[in-house]
Amino acid sequence: MEKLASCLPHHGATSSQSFKLSTLHRPTPTPTPGPRSSRPVSTVRCAPSSHAGIAAAAIATAGDTETHRYDDVNGISSSFDLERYMSRNAETVHAALDAALTGLECPALLADSMRYSALGGGKLVRPVLSIACCELVGGRAAAALPVACAAELVHAASLVHDDMPCMDDDALRRGKPSCHAAFGEHAALLAGDALLALAFEHVARESSCHVGAHADRAIRAVAELAAAAGAGGVAAGQVADKASECDVTVSLRLAGLEYIHVHKTARLVEAAAVCGAVVGGGGPGEVERVRRYARRVGLLFQVVDDVLDVTRTSEQLGKTAGKDVAAGKATYPRLMGIDKARAYAGELLALAEAELDGFDAQRAAPLRHLARFVAYREH
User: Fold this and answer.
1) What is the pLDDT of residue 4?
2) Other residues' Cβ atoms within 10 Å of the Cβ of residue 157
3) Which of 15, 122, 241, 337 is most buried as measured by Cβ atoms within 10 A of its Cβ?
4) Is 172 helix (H, G, I), strand (E, B) or coil?
5) Domain for residue 200, yes or no?
6) Domain containing 359 — which CATH number?
7) Structural domain containing residue 261
8) From CA 148, how far away is CA 155, in angstroms rounded?
9) Quick check: 379 and 316 in contact, CB under 8 A?
10) What pLDDT is attached to residue 214?
11) In 10 A of CB 336, how many CB atoms?
């Protein structure tokens, strides 16, 4: 199996890194209501000055080191190794996904296209997030493995469909031909459907086999993932994204852009995190704080993705660069400018980290560093 750690070296904020979140703009703070899973939440808000200062300090000093090891005022050990943490958990998830996709009773074309799409070398950020959030609330990593795999299967399904000619029409994914380019459109369409169904089958089957599993937690996790994949999440975001290509009144408004990315990107990141906290036994308050943290990290991912799309080549990204600009789509750099988009990313990073205050510092360390990994990634 390919070492998943190979996905990570490019995320380190080194002195040669061209993408840096260098400045935090501080507009007048506005109240931050606690979001609920059934309501879209706008997170274009400024962090409180103390948290913004923490983020600014981390951003300013990140270029001085070649690893993601930070001295943090919240008590995180400066020796925490995010790459090792992600690599170890990603290998565990990859092995579990491999097992789940082995021996499928279906035509070889379908099985091969499913494996190709789900085991194609992604960073596995969502499943690692599930595990980290489970551990954050005092759960064991093994309890989160079924929902971690399911989150990645839902994500893989969404990418297969997103790349198809009727959607974004992208022939490249993770540096390789996308599923429809490699196997044909009909196989890709059905592979996406099958991966989505397998996600929920996997949670139900594996949770029932896990020693000490709680059926009510598994049911809550299934409901959370289903909401994130369907009309309350990815599907809604994708429809709005397509509509924005021809509706100038939507494509030129930040509120419309944020709606798209809260649903298309952030909602699934949020669900992965919430599912981990739920199966880990987190209380309602803890789960809601995890939800807010993850939604901001999900938006942060998209803001950074938009910036990279206009500052990186296709070879660096492993997918077609500049497609959104060429298609006239609304992006954060297009609507805000690159500098303000980077500043907004800095605010989201500070807000995400603020949600971790009050949790055990060592348990929260992976999530703090994971947020920074998302902020400083280069592809």
Assistant:
1) 33
2) 25
3) 241
4) strand
5) yes
6) 1.10.600.10
7) 52-60+80-376
8) 11
9) yes
10) 86
11) 18
Number of residues written out for the chain: 379
- What local confidence, expressed as pLDDT, does residue 189 receive? 97
Count the helix, strand and coil residues of the chain and give each as a percent rounded to the nearest 5: 65, 0, 35
pLDDT reported for residue 256:
87
Task: Provide the number of structural domains found in the chain.
Answer: 1
Beta bridge partners of 173: 176
Q: pLDDT band at 241, cuts 50/70/90?
A: confident
pLDDT above 90: residue 242: no
Asked if residue 47 belongs to a domain, the reply is no
SS3 string, 235-254, reads: HHHHHHHHHHCCCHHHHCCH
Q: Is residue 294 within 8 Å of residue 125, measured between CB atoms?
A: no
Name all contacts of 227-230 with Cβ < 8 Å and 24+ positions apart: 227/37, 227/38, 227/267, 227/271, 228/154, 228/267, 228/268, 228/270, 228/271, 229/154, 229/157, 229/158, 229/196, 229/199, 229/268
In a domain, 367, yes or no: yes
The pair of structure tokens assigned to 30 is: 């506005």
Does residue 87 lie in a domain region?
A: yes
Cα–Cα dist 200/190, whole Å: 16
User: Residue range 46-70: average pLDDT?
Assistant: 39
Q: Taking the complete model, does pTM exceed 0.90, yes or no?
A: no
Task: List, for residues 246-295, the tens digit of each pLDDT value.
Answer: 655 544 578 888 999 999 999 999 999 999 999 999 999 999 999 999 99
Q: For residues 70 and 374, is the Cβ–Cβ distance under 8 A? A: no
159-175: per-residue pLDDT in tens?
999 999 999 888 888 88
Angle at 199 between CA 198 and CA 200, to 5 degrees: 95
Q: How far apart are CA 80 and CA 69, in angstroms?
A: 6
